[in-house]
Amino acid sequence: MVNMNFEQEKKDIVYWARLLGAKNLVIGRSGNISLNAGRGKIMITGHDAYLGFLEEADIVLMEEGGKILEGKEEPSVERELHLEIYKQFKDTKVVLHAHPSFTTAFFNYFDRLDIFSFEAKFYLGEVKAIAQDTPTVTNIEPVLEALENANIVVLKNHGVVAVGDDFKAAFSLIELLEEQARVNLLMKSANLQTPDQKQKTIEEAKANTKKYKMLSEEHAGALMGIVNNDSEAQELGRKYDLTCTLAVKNQDNGEVIRFVYEHGKIMKIDNDENAEFVIIGKPEILRKVFNREIDPFVASTQGKVKTKGDFAKMSKWYPVMVRTFKLWEQAPVE
Q1: In the sheet where 265-270 sits, what is the strand order?
Q2: Tens of pLDDT along 126-137?
Q3: Is there a contact between 296 and 176 (Cβ–Cβ < 8 Å)?
Q4: CATH 3.40.225.10 is right for the domain spanning 7-189
Q5: Second label for 326, Cα 20 to 30 Å away, from 67, 95, 179, 308?
Q6: Cα 62 versus chain centre, distance
């Protein structure tokens, strides 16, 4: 075959292929790279090439129509994808197909990626994931459609495809996406959420959670279990030595539940209104208190509920009571 003498282009492909390997964005013989070398020529890595240890001999030179002009290896099995991208997007100079681990893992379980850094938001936009049913990309059209709106697309269980007018531009998209996928997975594993996600989760939880008859034996039992099984409430209770009795009373029908605390743990519940601290209110207000629509402390200071007891004394237990009242919403009332 005729030597077309694309020496610098070959060096560039080798450099970026090895960098993909060094950054763990391709593993083993996964991934492929191509370059539009101009003059109707496309350079692409060979089939089964090991990008992390790529040599110039692993690069194949083709015509835009797919005819091999130079190279000892067969071109990548993804050559049709690369050729179609160059055919549809005339300004594209580089196509990188990589297999970043965190990105692959994230989109195996989730459909939408949250972008947390300003840089990633600016460059990535909303990344689309395309379902894949085969080891190679046989249905190219959805990939091309996705690339109409973004320069990077995820192939579910098959990595990513990034395009650009040079290697650095395409490579940086893969790096940014991998970083954001990792952040998303870390936040999900830690059960951390953005404010919007958190509010949505709370609303969904309330909609799907069982509702109790207020101040019933079942309601009191649920509250006791929630508080006693919450590690944060228990730790605060021990730290501030929450040892007292607290009662809540419906002023219309006289129903009462009383909690007997010892070092933060509820040891007993009963219906005795004789307690160190008593919250008394109309049912519609107490319902809002238990459902966390009104903070109990705010309800007291604004006169929405009446209180008995030395609530200045209760102030020393403020941190643990804040946690306790927060937990009440996990047993919403009808």
Answers
A1: 265-270, 256-262, 245-250, 277-281, 306-308
A2: 788 999 888 889
A3: no
A4: yes
A5: 308
A6: 41
